[in-house]
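Lab notebook, bench 4. Still working through the backlog of constructs that have no structural model yet. Next entry is a single chain of 293 residues. Request: give me the structure tokens for it.
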Amino acid sequence: MYIPDFQFHRPATVQDACRLLTESEDAAPLAGGTDLLVEMKQGGRRHRDIVSLRAIPQLRAIEADERALFIGAGVTHNDVKASPAVREIFPAIADAAATIGTDQIRNVGTIGGNLCTGASCSDMAPILIALGAEVEISGIGSTRVLPLEEFFVSHRATRLQRGELMTNIIVRRHGDARVSWYEKFGMRNAAAISVASAAVTLTVDAGICSEARIVIGAVAPTPKFSAGASSALTGQPIASMTEGSPLLEQAGAAAAADSLPIDDLRGSSDYRRTVIQVLTKRAVLRALERLPR
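Model written out:
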């Protein structure tokens, strides 16, 4: 099947892109195109205007200061994976980017595109939510920032309004000792869509987990903060978080209880609940390995 005819636009600024998206009756932004172009070719989507974001330098920058890491929404997954700043400050973000698709997909697919599709199986969303990330959204003459956790409404539905673009992902630094990990399970070793995933961020102070943020993916309509699993670990000594320990078992069970999985070709709801228990426990253990010795 061929891609239907459309008008192609290549604006040089965010404001020009937002204007085109606002003025057209049927426009879509194009970042990497790894979802959009496939869906158009398969007949699932049709748009009169395609607005390419590739010529907007602002969207392709990775910057850091003493306050936060800023990742442009148009940065590719391989650029996230290879970025010295990302690897130094938040290595779990680079690790999550490395799990997406193949090199060919990561070379063109973007971090903003992965989030803006609103898919429940997004690989970048769980780790970013676990790290407390925010997203910057721009429209014509306006900019707003909201927690990524609040960006998702339901499966493939977000808070983006007509004429708006995600422009930056903002991950703020913390002075405390924080460690993170992203764990994903798919049906094969490469180019796999998540059957279930778990992201963990632990803040450790004098051997105590002062805050735990556990986010589960592909087991609910949106990436989901697991309040039960996070509460189970918060305030507990990390010495109690060992393989097979009652505390870790409790956290895994709580994550499964917080999930709302579906049955599909990749796994039943019961299977996903079992997998999410394993992934949560594994992610906690792997995150703790990142603590300074």
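Notes after review: The chain has a mean pLDDT of 95. The first strand starts at residue 7 and ends at 9. Flag for follow-up if needed.
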